Amino acid sequence: MSALTVLADGEFEAPGPSIFDFPPLWQGAPVWANKPVLLALLGALLVCALAWSAFARPKLVPRGIQNIGELGYLFVRDQVARPFLGKDAERWMPLMVTLFFLILLWNLFGVVPFVQIPIASHIAFPLVFAITIYVIKIYLGIKHQGFIGYFKNMMFPPGLPKAIYVLLAPIEFLSNMIIAPFTHAVRLFANMFAGHMLLAFFSAVGFWFLFERLTVTGAAVGVLGVVMTIVMTGFEIFIEFLQAFLFTMLAAMYIGGSLNPEH
Amino acid sequence: MTLGAGLLAAEAENPLIPHAYELIVGGFAFLIVFVVVGKILTPRIQKTLEERTEAIEGGIKKAEDAQAEAQRTLEQYKAKLDEARHEASRMREEAREQAAQIKTDLREEAQAEARRLIEAARAQIEADRQQAFAQLRGELGRLATDLAGRIVGESLEDETRQSRVVDRFLEELESTDGAAVR
């Protein structure tokens, strides 16, 4: 904030995309040793630790943290895996649980004080997940439907007038092979990016008008900024949960579509 | 600090271009979580949930069995109770019949006894009467003969005639007074 004070002599400047760029943690450290990378690894370990304490020795009658863990597990199973994977649900639960828990925790980092960066706001992280799902999707599709069958089912869904296929086939190919993985990753990334930006903006407004340049008229704006920061934090928690759910659900949908074409 | 750092930089990085090192770290984190949570822990909770389902289903089955058992026992008890009730009513009926039988028997016996007594008394009376009659006949014969002898003044020596006269008299007597004696 000191930099802001020095630079801005009277003009409020809204935070831009640069707030997502982090320098190395200390002087002379390698370029990758920055805050998001460290938190990503920390988050992965935290998910492992939490899951371990919940599921390492599961009891028939759950106690304490196992209850919470089961709540999450059953949510993934009943809302994500079973509707989209049907009888294959149990087999794919490890991947779905991994995706949901890791993304959820990384997202929630966005509203934890001092941590305050949703990991998925760096596109590399959602991209890793999306590419993995993309590879699995194509592999399973070709394995279960055959190479020709997979693309035939994708581009030429039965029961349509022939002329439509001229239009439909390229659109389907494009949407399934190129757009789907891209939107899969970008949806999560963009939500986290925008959410963090909003929070940063409102807290910057509050900070600027209540501390940096406190004036009678400005104070009202500052108070509004603080109130909006609180409101948006609540909203962010909801969005972070929703996006973790949505990402996992889409993964299940893609895999389910490859296992059982044209349901 | 972050804000300042961002503003100090000449230009922000393009947020849509992934850093290679972040891809590697992301993949690594994904792999760790997948192995630990997905491959090690998920099967455990899957197994536990399955066991729990079985336990609950087993519990329900057990409860159903117990209920069926209770129902069976209840029916058995009811059947037994019915049987006992039947038995009791049957015994009551029997007792009543027996009592009635005993009553009739006793009555018949008493009647027979009474009849016997009456018969005996009647026989006794008849015997007494016969005896008295026989006695009376001798006495009366003698007295009458004496009286007649005295009145007539003539001894009726002839035994046979005497006896005949007496007999005739007595027969007359009997024919007129027989009903009165009885």
From TrEMBL, chain A:
<dbReference type="Pfam" id="PF00119">
    <property type="entry name" value="ATP-synt_A"/>
</dbReference>
<dbReference type="InterPro" id="IPR045083">
    <property type="entry name" value="ATP_synth_F0_asu_bact/mt"/>
</dbReference>
<dbReference type="InterPro" id="IPR023011">
    <property type="entry name" value="ATP_synth_F0_asu_AS"/>
</dbReference>
<keyword id="KW-1003">Cell membrane</keyword>
<keyword id="KW-0812">Transmembrane</keyword>
<keyword id="KW-0375">Hydrogen ion transport</keyword>
<feature type="transmembrane region" description="Helical">
    <location>
        <begin position="218"/>
        <end position="235"/>
    </location>
</feature>
<dbReference type="InterPro" id="IPR000568">
    <property type="entry name" value="ATP_synth_F0_asu"/>
</dbReference>
<feature type="transmembrane region" description="Helical">
    <location>
        <begin position="188"/>
        <end position="211"/>
    </location>
</feature>
<feature type="transmembrane region" description="Helical">
    <location>
        <begin position="163"/>
        <end position="182"/>
    </location>
</feature>
<keyword id="KW-0406">Ion transport</keyword>
<feature type="transmembrane region" description="Helical">
    <location>
        <begin position="37"/>
        <end position="56"/>
    </location>
</feature>
<keyword id="KW-0066">ATP synthesis</keyword>
<keyword id="KW-0813">Transport</keyword>
<protein>
    <recommendedName>
        <fullName>ATP synthase subunit a</fullName>
    </recommendedName>
</protein>
<comment type="similarity">
    <text>Belongs to the ATPase A chain family.</text>
</comment>
<dbReference type="InterPro" id="IPR035908">
    <property type="entry name" value="F0_ATP_A_sf"/>
</dbReference>
<feature type="transmembrane region" description="Helical">
    <location>
        <begin position="92"/>
        <end position="117"/>
    </location>
</feature>
<comment type="function">
    <text>Key component of the proton channel; it plays a direct role in the translocation of protons across the membrane.</text>
</comment>
<keyword id="KW-1133">Transmembrane helix</keyword>
<keyword id="KW-0138">CF(0)</keyword>
<feature type="transmembrane region" description="Helical">
    <location>
        <begin position="123"/>
        <end position="142"/>
    </location>
</feature>
UniProtKB/TrEMBL annotation, chain B:
<keyword id="KW-0375">Hydrogen ion transport</keyword>
<dbReference type="Pfam" id="PF00430">
    <property type="entry name" value="ATP-synt_B"/>
</dbReference>
<keyword id="KW-0066">ATP synthesis</keyword>
<comment type="similarity">
    <text>Belongs to the ATPase B chain family.</text>
</comment>
<keyword id="KW-1133">Transmembrane helix</keyword>
<keyword id="KW-0812">Transmembrane</keyword>
<dbReference type="InterPro" id="IPR028987">
    <property type="entry name" value="ATP_synth_B-like_membr_sf"/>
</dbReference>
<feature type="transmembrane region" description="Helical">
    <location>
        <begin position="20"/>
        <end position="42"/>
    </location>
</feature>
<comment type="function">
    <text>F(1)F(0) ATP synthase produces ATP from ADP in the presence of a proton or sodium gradient. F-type ATPases consist of two structural domains, F(1) containing the extramembraneous catalytic core and F(0) containing the membrane proton channel, linked together by a central stalk and a peripheral stalk. During catalysis, ATP synthesis in the catalytic domain of F(1) is coupled via a rotary mechanism of the central stalk subunits to proton translocation.</text>
</comment>
<keyword id="KW-1003">Cell membrane</keyword>
<keyword id="KW-0406">Ion transport</keyword>
<dbReference type="InterPro" id="IPR005864">
    <property type="entry name" value="ATP_synth_F0_bsu_bac"/>
</dbReference>
<dbReference type="InterPro" id="IPR050059">
    <property type="entry name" value="ATP_synthase_B_chain"/>
</dbReference>
<dbReference type="InterPro" id="IPR002146">
    <property type="entry name" value="ATP_synth_b/b'su_bac/chlpt"/>
</dbReference>
<keyword id="KW-0175">Coiled coil</keyword>
<keyword id="KW-0138">CF(0)</keyword>
<feature type="coiled-coil region">
    <location>
        <begin position="60"/>
        <end position="131"/>
    </location>
</feature>
<protein>
    <recommendedName>
        <fullName>ATP synthase subunit b</fullName>
    </recommendedName>
</protein>
<keyword id="KW-0472">Membrane</keyword>
<comment type="function">
    <text>Component of the F(0) channel, it forms part of the peripheral stalk, linking F(1) to F(0).</text>
</comment>
<comment type="subunit">
    <text>F-type ATPases have 2 components, F(1) - the catalytic core - and F(0) - the membrane proton channel. F(1) has five subunits: alpha(3), beta(3), gamma(1), delta(1), epsilon(1). F(0) has three main subunits: a(1), b(2) and c(10-14). The alpha and beta chains form an alternating ring which encloses part of the gamma chain. F(1) is attached to F(0) by a central stalk formed by the gamma and epsilon chains, while a peripheral stalk is formed by the delta and b chains.</text>
</comment>
<keyword id="KW-0813">Transport</keyword>
